[in-house]
User: Fold this.
Amino acid sequence: MNVLFATSEAVPVAKTGGLADVAGALPKALEELGVHTAVVMPKYGLIKEEVLQSFTEIAQFEVAFGWRSQYVGLWKGVVDGVTYYLIDNEYYFKRGGLYGYGDDAERFVFFSVAVLAAAYFYEEEKFDLIHCNDWQTGLIPFLLKQRFADHDYWRNTSSVYTIHNLMYQGIYGIEQMKELLGAGDECFTAEGLEFYGDASCMKAGVQFADKLTTVSPTYAQEIQTAYYGERMDSLLSYRREDLYGIINGIDTEHYDPMKDAHLVSPYRHSLARKRKNKTDLQAEMSLPVDETIPLIGLVSRLVEQKGLDLVMETLDELLYEQPVQMIVLGSGDEKYERFFYEASLRHPDKFRFWLGYSDRMASRIYGGADLFSMPSRFEPCGLSQLISLNYRTVPIVRETGGLKDTVLPYNEFTYEGNGFTFTNYNAHEYLFTVKRAIEFYQNKEVWQRIVDNGSRVDYSWKNSAKQYKSLYQGIKK
Assistant:
């Protein structure tokens, strides 16, 4: 089986978020299961030269969309044992970032058309299936069944469409999308791309892909409801027989506390060795060095989705009342950045805020913290809780999406559970749960049991890749 994995980003080529981690790890895991998976993505101007050294240009051609005819360069390389194709057009992709430009609709219509127009230049004889991801590639299943329906190369090709975050849908004006796609009114109906008076790239994927997936079983159920469905719940409910929730994994080779060069004390199960990383982190962050004080970590984009309003509402009470320290790493909305900065001034012996993102500091927080805070309002899958579990750092999460599927609340009567959870999006519930976790931390025997429970789960991509392979094989043309 040959699978073309279409994505707008992938580690280690280019990354802004969790999609890149998935697109970098899942194809590698599928290759190990005997599914040949090639990744296709844009050739962004910010891709590092050391990555591009393994690529060569294999084709140049023109692609027509709307009234335009644009140059395409097709580059091929091998990264971590996986074949990559890069769609090159400097006008669209040689920029300082990946997204957030006024012409993103045009850029990703071009990319979607170019992926299919490159058919005879791919060095695979034929792709049996295209796996598309998020709104940037949502138009590909639509184009497969419309413009390329009778194309010799694509005629029998199936499509899978994965929703990583339903909030971001690629919604643009109908007239603009008509012009870019060269499509008529018949494509912009309720059965087509029309979405509440506009056109939605994500709806194109949901409507036209043969099978749909999202990144956790609970999120697959949640998005069929009005609260989580972002106005697409009725369509997703209509397609529920074709919708599968498959939990993400993590690259356990990369996120390995035994091999993490950013940690002063490599460890696996030894909490004594892990605590050496805590005291080293405390010293670096100019916090009182004391291995007995529970340390809470938070590594996140600072946006409302991540439940940071709950953290804001409870932080002062928590720090004033509890023997605890907390370190936050991230950037995002100004109100959160300002709050955490001012909190570090109010609580100089208990709280630190690192503005921005640093792989080194993220690793040191995962490795040094005892607890990890992730009280998300919604979370399709979440990777941070999986990383923290792999680093033997106990997560505190809200029961939503992938957090509910991966973090099981500790039960002191049955001794089951690998973390602490709460149900309602409520500051008092969150604070109560944090206090409960701190209370259990004081009992070394119980804490070791909770950590050991978390260590018994396989967080790699192996199981998830098997589910994807089974899904691919079950699609019949």
User: Anything to note?
Assistant: The first helix runs from residue 18 to 32. The radius of gyration is 23 Å.
